[in-house]
Design a protein that fits this description.
Largest sheet: 5 strands, mixed
Oligomer: single chain
CATH superfamily: Ribonuclease H-like superfamily/Ribonuclease H
Number of strands: 5
Strand content: 15-25%
Distance between the termini: 17 Å
Mean pLDDT: 84
Helix content: 25-40%
CATH topology: Nucleotidyltransferase, domain 5
Strand order of the largest sheet: 3-2-1-4-5
CATH architecture: 2-Layer Sandwich
CATH class: Alpha Beta
Radius of gyration: 18 Å
Amino acid sequence: MLHRIRYAMVSGTFEKLSGTIESDETFVGGQAKFMHASRRARITGGSGRVDNKTAVHGVVQRGGEVRATVVDDTTSLELQGNVRRWVEQASAVYTDENRAYWGLDQFFAHKSVNHSETYVVGDVHTNSVENFWSLLKRALKGTQTHVDPCHLERYVTERAFAYNYRESSDLERMQNAVTGVRNRRLTYARLTGKTAY
């Protein structure tokens, strides 16, 4: 039932974000130090580093809404495609110095900050989207405790919904979630991965 509610929280808006936008990606998955020794050896290959985490990409309009989704990879094709889909052209887009964002200046007023040196250069920073990642990971670790990668998209949707309606009352949030039920059906077979979305 909870997954069906999360599925209803999917934003039905096609409205693009504008103004000052921050874009970033994060990785969700278990930490090697918490794994059983045999699983840790198999997954990390003895390096102690977990490479099979799931990537999540998001953009935040400062003082506004967030858009976030699970992505297959963090290539420029994937990340820049999301930014162009979610953000109005000519908006100010701030990122870190990830090479996947190179070329955004063709469509946006793009500036980046080098996190190995500093986190803020004047108005250029990604602190708002980093705050969203903090809220997402705190919910995943503290409330859900274990999230299968095949269900992660719905948990990201739930956190984005909560962020976007953070100033609404509980009743308003419930009403907005219920309106998303129309024409959305999550069957048990889809929920358990027996049929494709």
